[in-house]
Amino acid sequence: MNLETNLCGIKLKNPTILASGILGVSKSLLKNVIENGAGAVTIKSISYEPRDGHKNPTILEFDSGMINAVGYSNPGLHGALDEFTDLKDLNAPVFASVIGKEPEDFTKVIEGLGNLDFSAIEIPLSCPHTPGFGTLAGQDSPEKTLEITKAVVKAAKVPVFVKLSPNTKNIGEVAMAAEKGGASGITAVNTLGPGMIINIEAAKPVMGFKIGGLSGPAIKPIAVRCVYDVYGSVKIPIIGVGGITTGKDAIEMVMAGATAIGIGSGVNYRGNDVFTKICNEMKDWIEKNNYNSLEEIRGIVHE
Amino acid sequence: MSKLPEMVKITKITQENPYVKTFFLDTEIEAKPGQFVMLWLPEIDEKPFSISYIGKETGITVEEKGKFTKAMFGLKEGQKIGIRGPYGNGFTPKENSCIVAGGCGIAPLSTLAEKMNNSVLIMGTRTKDRLIFENRFPNANIVTDDGTVGKKGFTTDVLEEFLKKGNIKNVYTCGPEIMMKKVFEICEKHNIECQASLERFMKCGFGVCGQCEVGGVCVCKEGPVILSDKLRKMKDFGSHARLKSGKRVPISEYAKWRCV
Ligand SMILES: Cc1cc2nc3c(=O)[nH]c(=O)nc-3n(C[C@H](O)[C@H](O)[C@H](O)COP(=O)(O)O)c2cc1C
Ligand code: FES
Question: pTM of the predicted model, to two decimals?
Answer without folding.
Answer: 0.96
